[in-house]
Design brief:
heterodimer; A: mainly alpha; MetI-like fold; two-stranded antiparallel ribbon; 13 helices; 75% helix; disordered C terminus; B: alpha/beta; 6-stranded mixed β-sheet; 4-stranded antiparallel β-sheet; 12 strands; 25% strand; globular; binds adenosine-5'-triphosphate; binds magnesium ion
């Protein structure tokens, strides 16, 4: 390099300054302006109807809708996790037939929109007007019920969300189990542990580190996806808001009310997820720090 | 020499094992007496690990039979045929056979003490207090009395392997299987693990040890078995097999191993 000879080393010690970042500052200024303008319009545009938003924010109908949303989310997620673990174990079974049942389940439920699945569950009575408990292929029936009585919008919502979630959880759990070194279950087996105990005490706890983060994402996703059951006329948070604005025509403010609640709950869940991840990542961080 | 009073603890007869079309064990016969230390030698791929894994039924057999302590391993006898055991029955048999792996395989999410206590509590269903006392004694015996609360990843390979030995011993096995227990260790850590195994041998434990440590074999083993191509090629006291092998394959193997370790 030519300039290198013109810049001799060690003649005097020069201080190091920061290089001015003019372009960066200009961009930040523009961005700040846009944000300020947006915020100004949001606050001052009367069509947002902020007084109405806050009037309904804690109204009994919205709150009971919120409780139903939380309930639905928790229950569907629980079904998804339990069934997902079972499907994951089936998928990894040595029996081809068992494997392919799990495969087909996941294939079907991941391959069709959950919205369509919900609609199906909602109109199951058109497919099977009567649900019969008994022997198959026209054997004796012990219990007979009208599908409309059994599959209420609530049941349809839980089935639709939970069964769909199981397919996704199965893949998450499977990835978690596969992340555990085979030597772990081998050592457990060699100690005389039966298969179930090995899975429960050795494999699953170690799979948790891989399973927890995406499961947190699924939970947050489920909270929002549960709004789809509005289509079944089950009065969870969104449908409660819809019922209100169907009468008073304050569509935008009530949608904002519902959105603020979704935002609030997902924020709380994200914080919870952060601590959960930190907890389960801990033994790993600790061990990699102190290893050797 | 020990006198032979009872029948052998381990009896292996005509064991064949294939993976798909690859026949790995081609008719193994081997007896190991109560209290005997048997060293398995042979080059890579000769089937040593597979044989060990058949002895505690981590692998099923294609033919032949294995008895440990007079009990048929992995199969139940019907009038004119054998049936594979249920996985629960096989698990019960494994409680009696300890195994130590090349790569330690300690439970990574449990402390040293929990690793040792896991099987006695959850498999043998023994009272926690008694198990804990004994686990601490075992850790002392392998020289790790100061590490009960450490997680495996905090330990050196040699320390992990000693915990793995303590974990296996906690089930009071009648037989211990070692699959290259020092092969994954840095050279300076090999000694501490071999010392523990040697102590165990002195205490009268019956052991089958796959190893490439010729000097260890010479010092500790009662019997050296040389395997090649899925067959036992040579078997005898280590002084004979290791110093004056009659089979050319044993000679080639030994000269290669001794050159490597020299
Ligand atoms: N589960 C398996 N599936 C297919 N092939 C296998 C399996 N386990 C072992 N083998 C094959 O069987 C042969 C013998 O393997 P084995 O591990 O018993 O040899 P080894 O004597 O222990 O060798 P090493 O000294 O390398 O450990 C090898 O060719 C190996 O690839
Ligand atoms: Mg091997």
């Amino acid at each position: 390099m030519a300039s290198a000879t013109a810049d001799p080393i060690g003649e005097s010690s020069l201080p190091i300054r920061k290089r001015p970042k003019l372009v960066q500052w200009a961009l930040i200024a523009v961005l700040g302006l846009v944000v300020a303008a947006g915020a100004f319009s949001v606050v001052n545009n009367e069509n947002f109807g902020w007084p109405i938003v806050f009037e309904y924010f804690t109204s009994p109908r919205i709150l009971s809708g919120l409780v139903r949303t939380l309930h639905l989310t928790a229950l569907s997620m629980a079904i998804g996790i339990v069934l997902g673990v079972i499907l994951a174990l089936m998928h990894m079974s040595r029996n081809r037939f068992v494997q392919s049942i799990a495969w087909a389940y996941i294939w079907f439920f991941r391959g069709t929109p959950v919205f369509v699945q919900l609609l199906f569950w909602g109109s199951i009575s058109a497919l099977y007007p009567k649900l019969i408990l008994g022997l198959p292929f026209g054997g004796p029936a012990w219990l007979e019920m009208s599908a409309n009585d059994l599959i209420t919008p609530y049941i349809a919502a839980v089935l639709g969300l939970g069964l769909n979630e199981a397919a996704y959880m199965a893949e998450i759990v499977r990835a978690g189990i596969k992340s555990v070194d085979r030597g772990q279950s081998e050592a457990a087996t060699a100690l005389g542990m039966p298969d179930g105990l090995t899975t429960r005490r050795v494999v699953l706890p170690q799979a948790m580190r891989v399973i927890i983060p995406p499961t947190g994402n699924q939970l947050i996703g489920m909270l929002k996806t549960s709004s789809l059951v509005a289509v079944l006329a089950y009065p969870e948070l969104l449908y409660s808001a819809q019922l209100i604005y169907a009468v008073n025509y304050q569509t935008i403010p009530l949608l904002i009310t519902a959105s603020l609640w979704y935002l609030l709950i997902t924020s709380v869940l994200s914080v919870g997820q952060y601590y959960l991840e930190r907890h389960f990542g801990r033994s790993e961080a600790r061990s990699s720090l102190e290893a050797r | 020499m020990r006198e032979k009073t009872t029948e052998p603890l381990v009896r292996i007869r005509g064991v064949h094992k294939s993976f798909g079309s690859l026949e790995v064990l081609k008719g193994i016969d081997l007896d190991v007496d109560q209290g005997e230390v048997c060293v398995l030698l042979g080059r890579s791929g000769s089937g040593k690990s597979t044989l060990l894994r058949c002895i505690n039924h981590l692998e099923g057999l294609n033919d032949g039979e294995i008895h440990v302590g007079g009990e048929r391993i992995g199969y139940e006898r019907r009038r004119d045929h054998l049936l594979p055991m249920t996985s629960r029955q096989a698990a019960r048999q494994r409680q009696n056979i300890g195994m130590v792996f090349q790569r330690f395989n300690l439970f990574a999410h449990r402390t040293v003490l929990e690793n040792v206590m896991e099987a006695p509590i959850y498999v043998a269903k023994r009272p926690r207090k008694e198990v804990k006392r004994e686990a601490l004694e075992l850790l002392e015996r392998v020289g790790l009395a100061d590490k009960p609360a450490a997680y495996p990843a905090m330990l050196s390979g040699g320390q992990q392997q000693r915990v793995a030995i303590a974990r296996a011993l906690a089930m009071h096995p009648a037989l211990m299987l070692f699959d290259e227990p020092t092969s994954a260790l840095d050279p300076e850590l090999v000694g501490e693990v071999l010392t523990v195994i040697q102590d165990l041998a002195r205490s009268g434990m019956t052991m089958i040890v796959v190893t490439h440590e010729i000097s260890f074999a010479r010092e500790v083993a009662d019997t050296a078995v040389f395997m090649d191509g899925g067959l036992v090629v040579e078997k005898g006291p280590p002084s004979e097999i290791l110093s004056d092998p009659s089979d050319p394959r044993t000679r080639t193997f030994l000269s290669r191993v001794l050159k490597e370790t020299a």
